[in-house]
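INFO worker-7 received task bundle
INFO bundle size: 2
INFO processing item 0
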Amino acid sequence: MVRASAEFLAWWVVLFALWIVLITAVDLLELAVGGFCALAGALAATAARRAASSR
C-alpha cells in the first residue's frame, strides 16, 4: 500500500511540475486544472503499470 501511494504521489508531482513548466500564466485556475489533470494522469499511469505487471 505504501509503495502504491508513493508511486502515485511521484507520478502526480512529475505531471504537475510538467504542467507548471508548460503554462504561461500561473494563477489559481491554472493550478486547479493542473492538479486535476495530474491526478487523472497519475491514476492512469499507476493503473497501467499494475495491469502490465500482472500479466
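INFO item 0 finished
INFO processing item 1
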Amino acid sequence: MANPELDIELEKFRELVGKALAEGGTQPLIKLTDEELAVLDPSGLEDVVAPTPHLATLSEEQREWVLGTALRSLVSRGAVEITNIAELDAVLRSEGADSNHLTADVDMRVTPEVSMALTLRRTAARALAIEQQTSSGSVTAFVFVHSPELMLIEQVTGGGMHIFTLASKAPDAARIVQALVDPFGTADRDGNTLQLDPSSLATDTVDRRLASVIDNALVVSQLIVLAEAPGPLLTTYATDRDVWAVSVDSPQAPTGITAQAVSGRTLEQHITKLIEQPAA
C-alpha cells in the first residue's frame, strides 16, 4: 500500500498548521491503534521510533487478520475513503485472500487529521521521548518538535492505542507529559539541589534521601531528547509523597548530574527545557 501523500509542500504545511494552532490553541487530533497505523503507513513500523506494543504480541497470521479488521474500522469511521471499495470488499470476503495482493490494490484517501499525524510524526528534526514505568507496565510518549508553535504529541498505551495531540506551545506539551511523569500530582515543593558524581549512581553512596525515593518509587520515568546528537536526559521518581528529578546534561559523557525534589512548577520547567532543546 502506498503511503498517503500531502498535496502541499512540507514547510507550507507546517506553516498552515502552525497558524491554525495559534488561533485555536493546543487540541486533540486523532486516536489510532497499532494495526490502523500499520495499514495507513506500513513502512512507519520500521521508520518511526514509536512502538507498536499490541502488534508485537501477534503472530504473522494474527497480524494479517487484524490488519483487515483495522482497514474496515478506518473506513467505517470515516478516517479513510476507499475509492475501489466494491472490489476490496469482494477480496475481503473471499477465502484464502493473499494479504500482500490485497494491500497493493487498495486505492486509499485519508482525512487531513490522519495526514497530519502521519506526516508530523515522520518529519520532525527532533523529539522528546518519554517512557513511564509502573508495576502495571510501561507507557511511552513522544513530543515531535517542528517549531516553537508546532508540536505533535503521541502517547502510546500498553494496549497499542496511539493518542495524537497538536500543541502550539512548549509549556502546553510539557503539561501533557507531566501528567505521565507525575500521575498522582505529588510534586509539591522544591528541595535542595544535590550535585552527583557519575560513579555514585552505580554504588551505595547515593544520598540516602534519593536512595529512599528510588527504592519506594511508584512511577519511574525516563525523558531523553532524540536528535542527531543525543540530548539531555531526565529521570524522575514519583512516590506517594513527592517527585525527584535526576538531570544529566549529556548521556554520552555524564557530567553535570543533579538531583532534586521538585515542585510541579519546577518539573514543568524541566520538561519544557527538554522540549525547547535546540536541534544539533
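INFO item 1 finished
INFO post-check item 1: The mean pLDDT is 82.
INFO post-check item 1: The two ends are 34 Å apart (CA to CA).
INFO worker-7 idle
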